[in-house]
Fold each of these.
Amino acid sequence: MRVLVVEDDPGIADLMVRGLERAGYDTAAAASGQQALLASPDPDVVLLDLGLPDMDGVEVCRALRERSDMAIIVVTARGEEGDRVAALDEGADDYLVKPFGLAELLARIRAVLRRVRPADREVLHHGDLTVDLRTRTVTVGGREVALTPKEFDILEALAVDPGRVVTRQEILERAWDTHWYGPTKVLDVHVAGLRRKLDRPGLVETVYGRGFRLGTPDPQAAPPDAP
Ligand code: CA
């Protein structure tokens, strides 16, 4: 999934690019409207700042939309409401108002992609993890991981919205029964099995007292069986 960040403020552009790459997106940056229009191949998602030095961002939006059905998320400062509306009229899929957090940016991208390409919903991506909901197969770094049905259900509950804390109760209701009133220790046993098979320390994170979420594995972390 290729993302193009169109932003003339190098500090903001750098933060966005680094955050998106950590989240597993292949990311490029353009500092002007002209650069954005020259980007090749076409990105899947464009994050478009409207206040650009060389061109009106709304014009850039129109030109990109004429070219392909890429997802376009407009990024604006608070004072640019008129421009934001104009950009939506020119085919932008969503907008974000500065300042925004990385988690919100990633959630907006996922939401827009779900609308633009419903078929992609069947395969969830998080870093080098893929979860195929149709075939119920999971890969990590290209390696297929054989999970039990319960382990798959737990991973699915986390992977539909990576980064969000999913409570123990939510997972139990999803993977076991509508209402699970029994001991929740069984969940820990399956989570331990899931972690062992994924073999990515930090990927399935425990949020103490709340539940679990998908985290960003530390690339520096040695495999558990390394000396
Ligand atoms: Ca700007």
Amino acid sequence: MTDCIFCKIANHDIPVKVVFEDDLCLAFPDINPQAPTHLLVIPKQHFANVTQAGDSLLGHVLKAAAGIAEKSLPGGFRIVINTGEDGGQTVDHLHLHLLGGRDMKWPPG
Ligand code: 5GP
Ligand code: ZN
């Protein structure tokens, strides 16, 4: 997807601070952080949202996010996948938010 900002980040056409990378996914800080730690974990392949990707890839990106969190956020964390307009999704390339470093509220807004 040539006009997708996260595809450009995944291809390293737009530079980001890479927190984790493997052949299938990339983790980098959110440009507008909502917590002391706020990373985005994206598959390198373009999927519009969580309904479009297969189990294997979904498992891979979830384990990548959990692995980062396990090492860096021992007090706990939250992983969020906003989906669609009602879900608050603003970038149509599947991404997991990894949030931590503060007390998370429930229910979320
Ligand atoms: P969504 O609202 O779709 O769940 O999350 C999209 C996230 O991407 C937002 O938290 C927003 O701050 C972040 N974001 C949008 N554009 C960029 C960008 O160019 N670079 C980075 N690092 N984050 C971005
Ligand atoms: Zn994309």
